[in-house]
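Entry type: protein chain
Record version: 2
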Amino acid sequence: MLTMDFRHLNLKPGAKVLDVGCGGGRHIRQTRLIPGVVGVAVDLGAEEVDNTAQMLRELDTHPVAWGGTVPGAGPWTSARASVYSLPFADGAFDCVIISEVLEHLHEDDRALREISRVLAPGGILAASVPREGPEAVCWALSKRYRNTPGGHVRIYRRRELRAKLTEHGYAVYASHFAHGLHSPYWWLKCLFGVDREENAMVTLYHRLLVWDMMRRPALTRTLERLLVPFIGKSVVFYGIKA
């Protein structure tokens, strides 16, 4: 379930990619499918880092025909680190991905300064956050959603995030929405209880999303394309560091 569109990243052999707040590694795994690209995944959570490493090791054992690592793929690393203090040299990376992380941070400007430090001049930053409209519905439906420890501390307006990236020295060259089918799932969770996974409506919709991700049938792919401009759950920006 990719939020970023890797076609906008223009990764070439030798490129070094950092995924900040990697979660389960859904984005860094794409570097295993591009020859010569080095992938580094960091997260504050030990479980997330371990899950990412396990997934990448499994990819390296699978044949290409099954979606495994391509011949000539670069090395990878998964490690614990804070976005406020990244353990890397200045300009160490050609691309930094930060997907669905900034909305959790009380000091987002501090995080962007640290990301800019480790990104080489001319490098690409790919940043995504929850989209304003669908996120506002979640906040309105559930106090629990917005007050969960470690949860979302703000709602970004699209133009606000673009302006923030510009202030930090990025020339934004592309933007899009993502996950049109996912907003209704989160609305259902907020309506029936964020922690109530056993609710029938939530369970059924989750099965639909899993089915869509695994099978990618024409019906749900068409629905995704129709819904994403209106209720896409995430907004993504791509910028070049001056």
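Comment: The radius of gyration is 18 Å.
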